[in-house]
């Protein structure tokens, strides 16, 4: 069996994620993580089946020897070579020390192997854990992960594969500045910005600027922005915004002839795709002061 599994690993172009092989009773232990696949003698648990690049992931594979004699075993979790970082960290929780317990240095395979010289005694099990991280180059979307191996020989798995999702995120940082309009115009000119701090490209989104309560209208709106007079809000659409890129929208708000005092406006990212992981930079405020509607400072 061991030679056949090695042949599969060499030709598969896959990366194994993590493994645990369990312990000292015929009754399999309670699973701490999510059970993602199992065969007759092996279970595979995952700390998560969705994560961002750079996030830590742990796979636990449990191989139970319920035969009448000591046994060797192979167990592995395999995915495409760009999904997980190599070599990972192996922790043997219980049972004999495996012959191999790692994600291969070539980035092609990771298994927990108990070969000649490593025997799982009858009525016990071997438990090991490999912790790795989602690779920075892992493509967003769903990847297929394949469990393999077994006690003595290859065993059928249920399911035969399971999905692992690399989450796509784009951190949008919002900015807002204000300057008085031309002298005696009674206007404030706002510049609203949205910067994509990545890592992914945005595909859609909206930034809404709420104008001062004493604003009466807006001029100079870009085509992808709209104004709602009842709520005094300017909504600007975000479309494809690459990592590191900034979009800028400039428009002017007209103040009421009787406007006085503090004039505050706030810009907020209300929606965006993919998910924004850092909401702390989603809002910006700009404040001006009106001595009269024609005398404004910012």
From TrEMBL:
Protein name as it appears in the record: Putative repeat protein (TIGR01451 family)
Renumbered residue ranges of the record's region Disordered: 263-283
Domain of life according to the entry: Bacteria
Residue ranges annotated for the DUF11 domain, each copy included: 171-287
Pfam family, one: DUF11
Organism: Actinokineospora cianjurensis
